């Protein structure tokens, strides 16, 4: 039950972080947003070091670095995806991809799915088709580029979570600090090399920093949940994060949801719930 609550908390924090990051990326180049978000996230994790401790073993450093590289890619792809929009379609697509890959890894490591899990995986694929096939008057229809970015973001998020799960259980927040240091360095290096293409628009500093802090909190809660539960369950519960993004997008941005897409969103929730039961 503690792992379940931690995973739900991680899901809520990820959803809020994604909304703020995607909104910030609409005001300036996505790399400018990530340049603020990633260091803010690192600062948050450094503040947690004295509280939760950290053991920088070889395994913690290795898996942390791998998660950081994946995190940097996830930051850019996800915020760019949500900046293109519509958030209420692309966020669930990203979530389903980010859930399916850790489930596969969990199965390969010997974890087993029940009947509900065997039903949930195909249902998740159906949900992806329904959610991404918006049509009709007034429907918010994602472009092919946006869908490809959403799939890429989901894969990068999944890789980040898998690497964090593989880190030693007694390493404290060392994998998080290592990973965020790597992602911050990669982001700043990319921004420096592309500085002429970033434009003159300034990032939304407060919004971007808040997104980074919330992402750090979400990573911590996931790490704690994964250490106390199975990856197949924790990952899919964490993948419920689009609920927060979609609600914020609807309430703040007044994004509309077509009836067919609404069915897809409901199917996505059902699929993730079935996977969680597995």
Straight-line distance between termini: 15 Å
In DSSP terms (H or I, runs of 4 or more residues), the helix count works out at: 11
The proportion of residues forming helix, as a percent range, comes to over 70%
> Helix and strand succession?
HHHHHHHHHHH
Shape: globular
Bin the strand percentage. Answer: under 5%
Mean pLDDT: 81
Which parts are unreliable, with pLDDT below 50 for 5 consecutive residues or more? none
DSSP E strands, number: 0
Kindly name the structural category: mainly alpha
| Major sheet characteristics | none
Rounded radius of gyration (Å):
18 Å
Task: Describe this structure as you would to a colleague.
- Helix content is 79%, strand content 0%.
- The protein has 11 helices and no strands.
- It has helices at 2-24, 30-52, 58-84, 87-108, 115-132, 144-166, 174-193, 205-228, 231-238, 242-253, 259-277.
- The protein starts with a helix and ends with a helix.
- The model has no long low-confidence stretch (mean pLDDT 81).
């Amino acid at each position: 039950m503690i792992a379940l609550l931690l995973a739900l908390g991680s899901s809520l924090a990820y959803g809020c972080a994604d909304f703020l990051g995607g909104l910030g990326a609409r005001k300036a180049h996505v790399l400018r947003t990530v340049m603020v978000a990633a260091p803010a996230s690192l600062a948050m994790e450094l503040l947690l070091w004295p509280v939760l401790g950290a053991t920088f073993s070889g395994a913690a450093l290795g898996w942390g670095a791998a998660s950081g590289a994946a995190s940097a890619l996830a930051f850019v792809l996800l915020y760019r995806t949500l900046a293109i929009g519509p958030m209420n379609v692309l966020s669930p697509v990203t979530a389903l991809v980010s859930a399916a890959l850790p489930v596969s890894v969990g199965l390969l490591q010997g974890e087993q799915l029940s009947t509900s899990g065997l039903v949930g995986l195909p249902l998740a694929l159906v949900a992806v088709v329904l959610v991404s096939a918006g049509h009709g008057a007034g429907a918010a229809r994602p472009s092919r580029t946006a869908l490809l970015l959403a799939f890429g973001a989901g894969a990068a998020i999944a890789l980040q979570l898998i690497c964090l799960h593989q880190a030693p259980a007694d390493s404290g927040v060392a994998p998080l600090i290592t990973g965020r240091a790597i992602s911050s360095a990669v982001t700043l290096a990319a921004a420096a090399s592309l500085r002429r293409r970033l434009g003159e628009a300034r990032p939304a500093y407060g919004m971007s920093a808040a997104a980074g802090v919330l992402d750090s909190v979400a990573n911590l809660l996931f790490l704690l949940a994964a250490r106390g539960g199975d990856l197949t369950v924790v990952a899919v519960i964490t993948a419920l994060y689009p609920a927060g993004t979609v609600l914020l997008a609807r309430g703040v941005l007044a994004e509309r949801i077509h009836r067919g897409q609404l069915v897809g969103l409901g199917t996505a929730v059902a699929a993730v719930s079935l996977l969680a039961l597995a």
